[in-house]
Please model this.
Amino acid sequence: MHNRFLAAVIQLNSQENKELNLKAALSFIDEACLAGAKIICLPEQFNFLGRDKLKLAAAEEIPGPAIGALQEKAKQKGVWIHGGSIIEKGAPQNKCWNTSVLINPEGKITAEYRKIHLFDIKIPGQVEMMESATICPGENLVTAETEYGKIGFSICYDLRFPELYRLLTKRNMELAVVPAAFTLQTGKDHWEVLLRARAIENQIYVLAAAQVGEHPPGRICYGNAMIVDPWGTVVARCSQRPGWAMAEIDLEIIKETRRNIPCLSNTRLI
Model:
């Protein structure tokens, strides 16, 4: 077990061109590897973010072209890659899943998670999105053991459901991954607050890769990919353009925080 290491979160402006999106993701992975990152996280729908009518055609199997490229990169660089999420084909009712994978330094997929909470929302005059129109919800909590700690999975809108993270923490999660494409309208007020709350409540690190800028058909994502420590401090943050941010993860800080504020051992309800 490595108690101290570097982790990176990548921020993208993914569009409907899968080839260009993948090229950008792999380039930033190379940069983060060169800087010493051992775990690298991509955002939600990193290889395609666009119109619903094109989503089914853009869906891929796992492994497929996008995940296969990440597997090759992980093996080449000897790092863990959390593949944000892609649209996975094969769901019932002519729909897809919103799925993330974790790839080990040998290039093998060690865990898969399908987004449980789907973003169905209508804000008059601002945003209307019905993720359930094209996506089926997942059903299973997912954690994965690594030599850098135990990782718990979530995707974007899951962030608004604290019970998910508490259940993952009961499974000994130390790092929560939150790949996202948070909208500007809600992100400017809620994104950082929710990430810091999940870190504080569960006394964990949160690794939140993000989409930024405008995407078809006029959707604007908030960006601000960040890493939050168990005290709730933002220890790394991306600027408002594609790129990546990196921070040192110290698992001893999790133990220290839980000793000093023993809320997890004192809880009586979950």
Notes: The chain has a mean pLDDT of 96. The domain at 4-260 is CATH 3.60.110.10 (Nitrilase/N-carbamoyl-D-aminoacid amidohydrolase). The two ends are 29 Å apart (CA to CA). The chain has one domain: 4-260.
